[in-house]
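User: Teach me something about this protein's shape.
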Amino acid sequence: MENQELDQFKPKIVGFLCNWCTYAAADLAGSSKMEIDPALTVIRVMCSSRVDHNLVLTTFFSGADGVLIAGCHPGDCHYGAGNYYARRRYALLKKVMESLGLESERLKLSWISAAEGNRYAEVVNGFSDKIRQLGPNPINKMSGL
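Assistant: First, the predicted structure itself:
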């Protein structure tokens, strides 16, 4: 992709945020007026373990350039072991994405507690920068999205 096209590229990033931790951190970051990249569309889920393979792949095939899954730190899950399930799905999804021709860097898993508004802003802004470097989702070009 040429530099001029990269400068004009506005990524579409979908974030699936755990209701109990990361969504609260997003709220804290917003109420603290932290700079957060507006490329992220937030979807609140009750637990990061509820984000399954089909949901992530459908998000990419629907035109998203990146997907962020964020939940409670391991051992702090409101539902016990939910984030361990999320971590296993994430590892498998990375392999599936590569087999589909998608860069695995387009998917990010992060643990952010409710008190970590600063970390939330850092993760979102860093991930947005990474997606800008990668450019548009290659599936979009193939499907005409």
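Now, about its shape. The longest strand covers residues 13-18. The chain has a mean pLDDT of 94. If you'd like, I can walk through any region in more detail.
User: That's plenty for now, thanks!
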